[in-house]
Specification:
It is a single chain. The relative contact order is 0.16. 33% of the residues lie in helices and 21% in strands. The protein is α+β, with helices and mostly antiparallel strands. The strands form six sheets. Strands 5, 6, 7, 10, 11, 12, 19 and 20 form an eight-stranded mixed beta sheet that branches. The protein has a four-stranded antiparallel beta sheet with strand order 15-17-13-18, with helices on one face. Helix 2 packs across helix 10, helix 3 crosses helix 15 and helix 6 crosses helix 15.
Length: 580
């Protein structure tokens, strides 16, 4: 007869229970053990279910507003007209309106381009409904008077100048060819300025020509073409803004919104989204140019010091490149850029993008894997100039480097300086800002914002299979000169861009397809037609209620500063230097 001793668990639980024959547990203990084992499994299951349900039921955050009950009427030009439009753009490209710096521009070519535009668009430049101004003689400002009294006109912008072509041997053809060429089984208008930004200039003027030939728009609008956008726009957009401000005041008008170059219709750029994406820039980055210097003793190279000025500075810039500014994915408009696309992504990416509350860090890591996508979520660091030494056998006593930061919309100059000083961690390296432009305010883009709806609707009418998303323009425009005139500044042109096209900007073999240029004209034509939806005849009239609109995501995502005093004063204490 075997012996059996009871444990204290038997006394507490009122019964015996053997766990694999090694110990004895009460029923209460077993329940607790089971709970501890199954609780993580249950949590994971519920989390998975929540992610799946959210992904399968995600709705489009952009809700399209019906601007008119009239049937959408595109121009749909025949082949002869299509080629004629393309040749107009090609003719503009033939003028090498290059801006090298603020005091070095091809002035004669700019003047010749003016004359060319007048001959190609005679209705625009001779209409009694159009007032023409030439601020600083080289820029162009048009006021197109609407058929209805208007106190809320809008502004369409583009620029006449281009960057230098660079090494001509790296172009397949003449950089200023301006002809229709056959490439990649398609027809393209080839040459510097095809996308940046003469397609906008010619597209706007062609759309205006068509509108004015049939009468005039209901709503008054302005058109501005700066001549020095590529070198900061001080003499172009800066002077246009002064004339425009005076015109607005004299006509008792307040600028409603502004549309300038910026983001594009892109395909194959956003991971997991196969359809074209209409990427409307609602903000652009700020920038600062920092000068890093190290002073030391000049000496002979036969007895070098343990650390030279060059070595100290090289170590400093190496640290800056290795330790990037922190990602701001959860606090900038790029959060909405991704969430807006969730309903249109492939299954896996739909699960991820519709559950950014859980996967935001993972998405940020994916964005960080590529320089172009990473640039939308953080302040970037680019070491652009390194200057030290003057003779091969002399240890220089001075070394200098130039670092250009493109500043994320949620950061300031102080943030950048603190980060850089902490990363470098060397008092021998002196840091000085040589120029600063703070990130402008984020323009509103919630569904009740009429200007955003006008732009989005116009783009969707031309690209019906595409999807709307707001975002950050990582480059800079000359819209900074208009910030005091309106808080609704949008950066978008309907150039169709694939992943392998991005290197053409300021690079080589710039081009735009003939069919895409037709879409450019169609878009600006629809812009002018759709803008008639919102004509106000009195500044005292109550406008429809609009949301704050800085961002649609209220939990995480872009954080906007609506402090009017901040907006009024934020541009008072910086120095602008040449930049593009």
């Amino acid at each position: 007869m075997g012996l059996h001793s009871k444990s204290k668990f038997d006394l507490e639980g009122g019964g015996e229970s053997s766990c694999c024959g090694f110990c004895y547990c009460s029923k209460k203990q077993k329940r607790i053990c089971c709970l501890l084992v199954w609780l993580p499994v249950i949590i994971v299951f519920l989390l998975f279910a929540a992610v799946l349900i959210k992904g399968l039921t995600v709705q489009d955050k952009f809700e399209r507003m019906e601007l008119s009950q009239e049937e959408i009427a595109l121009i749909n030009p025949n082949n002869e007209t299509t080629i004629a439009w393309a040749k107009k753009l090609g003719g503009a490209i033939k003028f090498p309106t290059v801006s090298r710096n603020e005091t070095d521009q091809n002035v004669q070519d700019l003047e010749n381009l003016h004359e060319y535009l007048k001959t190609q668009f005679p209705t625009v430049f001779s209409s009694e409904n159009v007032e023409t101004f030439f601020p600083n003689s080289l820029s162009i400002l048009l006021r197109i008077k609407g058929s209805k009294p208007t106190v809320n006109p809008y502004l369409l912008c583009a620029h006449l100048d281009v960057v230098p072509a660079g090494d001509p041997t790296k172009w397949d053809l003449d950089p200023f060819l301006g002809e229709i060429v056959e490439q990649d089984n398609d027809q393209f208008i080839y040459g510097r300025g095809a996308i940046d930004d003469k397609h906008s200039v010619i597209g706007i003027l062609q759309a205006l020509e068509i509108v004015l030939e049939g009468g005039k728009p209901e709503r008054t609008l302005y058109v501005a073409f700066g001549h020095d956008e590529e070198v900061s726009g001080h003499n172009g957009a800066g002077e246009i803004a002064k004339v425009l401000e005076e015109l607005l005041e004299n006509n008792n008008e307040k600028l409603d919104f502004l549309l300038d170059e910026g983001m594009f219709v892109m395909q194959g750029v956003v991971p997991g989204v196969d359809d074209p994406v209409i990427y409307i820039g609602v903000v652009e980055k700020g920038w600062t140019t920092l000068e890093l210097t190290v002073n030391g003793d000049q000496s002979h190279s036969s007895a070098p010091p343990r650390e030279s000025t060059i070595g100290i500075l090289a170590n400093a810039v190496s640290k800056l490149e290795k330790h990037r500014s922190p990602a701001k994915f959860s606090s900038g408009p790029e959060y909405d850029s991704m969430s807006y696309l969730a309903p249109h992504a492939s299954f896996f990416f739909k699960m991820v993008l519709s559950n950014l509350w859980l996967f935001k860090d993972a998405v940020s890591s994916v964005l960080a894997g590529g320089s172009e996508l990473d640039a939308i979520q953080r302040t970037t660091t680019a070491v652009t100039i390194f200057d030290a030494g003057f003779k091969e056998n002399v240890i220089p006593g001075f070394a200098k480097a130039t670092v250009n930061h493109r500043i994320h919309p949620t950061e300031t100059l102080d943030d950048i300086l603190k980060h850089d000083k902490k990363v470098i961690d060397d008092d021998r390296v002196q840091i000085e800002s040589k120029g600063y432009f703070p990130p402008p305010p984020i323009s509103p883009y919630s569904n009740d914002i009429i200007p955003f709806q006008i732009i989005a609707n116009s783009a969707l009418e031309v690209f019906p299979g595409a999807h709307i998303t707001p975002g950050t323009l990582i480059a800079n425009t000359d819209t900074k000169h208009y910030l005091h005139l309106t808080d609704k500044i949008y950066r978008f042109t309907p150039a169709f861009i694939r992943k392998n096209d991005t290197k053409r900007f300021h690079g080589f073999n710039e081009r735009i397809s003939v069919n895409n240029f037709v879409q450019v004209v169609e878009f600006y034509h629809r812009m002018i037609v759709n803008a008639d939806f919102s004509v106000e005849d009195s500044l005292d009239k109550d406008l429809p209620a609009e949301g704050s609109g800085q961002c649609d995501n209220l939990e995480e995502g872009c954080v906007a500063n609506n402090d009017s005093e901040t907006k009024d004063n934020m541009f008072d204490d910086y120095e602008l230097v040449e930049d593009s």
